[in-house]
Amino acid sequence: MDKVKDPVFGIGKLDDDLTGIPDKKSVLFFASPAVGNEVFGYQVIHNNLLHGNKVLLYVNRTSPEAYLADMKDYDFEVNSNLHIIDSYSGITGISSKSVDDSTMISNPYDKEEIKKALSEELDKGYDLLVIDSLSLIADFFDFDYAMSVIDLVKDKLDKKGGSVLSLFTDWDYGEENLNKLISKVNAKVDIKGIEKRVIFGQYFAVIKCDWVKDKKFSSVLFKAVKPGGIKIYFPKILVTGPTDAGKTSFIHSASKDAVSVDRLGGTIALDHGNLDFKGYKADLFGTPGQERFDPLLKLLGGEAVGVILVIDSTKPDQFPRAIEMLRKTETYGLPIVVVANKADLPGALSLDDIREHLHLDKNTSLVRTVAENLNNIDPNKPTRLKKDGVDSALDALFAELT
Amino acid sequence: MIKTGIQSFDDAVGGIDLRKTYLISGNKESGKEDFSYRLVASALRDKNAVIYVTTGKTVNDVIASFQSRQLNISQYMGNSFKIIDAYSRSISPQSTDNSYTKMLNGPLDLTGISVALSAMNAEMSKEGVPVLNVIDSISVLMLYNNPTTIYRFLQFVCGRSKMAGISSVFLIDDEMHSPEVNETIKSIMDSVIMLRLENGKRSFKVLGNSKEVLDWKDI
């Protein structure tokens, strides 16, 4: 197959922002240790092979056979345009016999043999070199050696053409080393986790790119999906809470085009609304509050990245049920905002009392909401909530999420 | 506190503290694995969630090790008990994930271990129950990686598990490593459980815990 065009990422947002990887350019995928970057490598390789590009893969993290098996799990097939330099099998002594198109480095502890293999193979001319992983080269030898490999590759690409993509995990190599590395590449894409106690989302962001001018890059959430690979991920916000607390009212008040599946004013399946708020877009999913729908809760809570817990301020006897719903939706630990609805009705507890009853720590956001017009309540329709309360809740949630 | 299921240990120390990191240190005959298997079974029985990382045995061998001790874990597998297998693919590259196992690409892939552990910790923390990580073992990881790399890995994994409120236990065969390596790894952990076999009896010490056991005590 002939080369069709410059190497691509095959990842929507990156190709849109960076328009592929121009000839003789180097890209660094820079990941935090709790977030995997290997799927980015799989996807880039797969898409370049589909485009007819010749790809050289330097693999030192695992055997070529396991690497290709992992790619296959994501539905990424390879073809004869891929050649692999195997810098792993020599460590275990088990060669990847089923992978024909590979060059095995007999002693992966030999710095010179690695450079020689890379140099000889790059002389044959490739459109794209993928190094998986550059950080492991630094771990195996030292950071300076990893930098000298980058220099060697750059020198070869300047002479023979082609681009390079390096996968790197930031295991705290020190600022000086990292600055040295970043100065050597043309583009850097950060791959990181959004974390509080645990990682509840992953994003990538173009931090540097010297061939795209006058463009602001934004970060996007993603998921690595089997099969399919990297998918841009739009967050799901779960709105949950006891019966008649005001979940549906909250979703309809916060969204432009909310729909409910309900009967006689009570939600029996779910509510959904598209939220467009101060530059954030999100899908709101509401749960039914009645206990007979509890078997649905885990399903509805799946993939949520944040929670709005709606409670009726006048009904402290329902508060244990509110906590139970967090547990049943399996959203414990996610960023959460508690909405104290009906806060202006007689018998409503103060925010301090609610915080005490729910055992909320001082860092958990607790926001009052009230109906727009108490004289115009239709029990069979969602009640509109006053904008300031809804906005305060959304402000607090997005502050938690970002 | 997570009970270990080993009466003399639980009586003396109470069990494994939540949000703490422990090093289980001893030689090949000291009973580290036996200790960890009993700890896992006990934790599961008490409705905790457990993630077991194996670096030198296949997942099938790990399960067989529980069964050979009459420790029933089958009812928890895929639910509150999950295994990260960082070994099988190094001998059998086609090994694939199942409902209770995440297959990684071998003991060199520390990033893979860290990512899988983070993801499973996040998943299990959502259930609202205490989570225990068992990493068996540091010694195997040391065979493939240089000490500095392992120190960085341990610091990161320990820091993250404490941040997430999770207890973590790491096994090490201390006779395989130099005193400097052993001391550095101990310094990364909150507590050290030392095990030994002497005169046909197994015993333990506990250092750095809220309740310490400074003299060898029979198991």
How is this structure best described in words?
The complex is a heterodimer of chains A (402) and B (219). Chain A has 402 residues and is of the alpha/beta class. Chain A folds into 2 domains: 221 residues, P-loop containing nucleotide triphosphate hydrolases (Rossmann fold, 3-Layer(aba) Sandwich); 166 residues, P-loop containing nucleotide triphosphate hydrolases (Rossmann fold, 3-Layer(aba) Sandwich). Chain A contains 13 helices and 17 strands. In chain A, helix 5 runs parallel beside helix 7 and helix 7 runs parallel beside helix 8. Chain A is elongated and about 80 Å long. Chain B has 219 residues and is α/β, with parallel strands linked by helices. Chain B has a 9-stranded mixed β-sheet with strand order 4-3-2-5-6-1-7-8-9, sandwiched between helices. In chain B, helix 5 runs parallel beside helix 7 and helix 7 runs parallel beside helix 8. The two termini of chain B are 19 Å apart. The model of chain B has no long low-confidence stretch (mean pLDDT 94). At the A-B interface, helix 3 and helix 6 of A face helix 4, helix 5 and helix 7 of B.
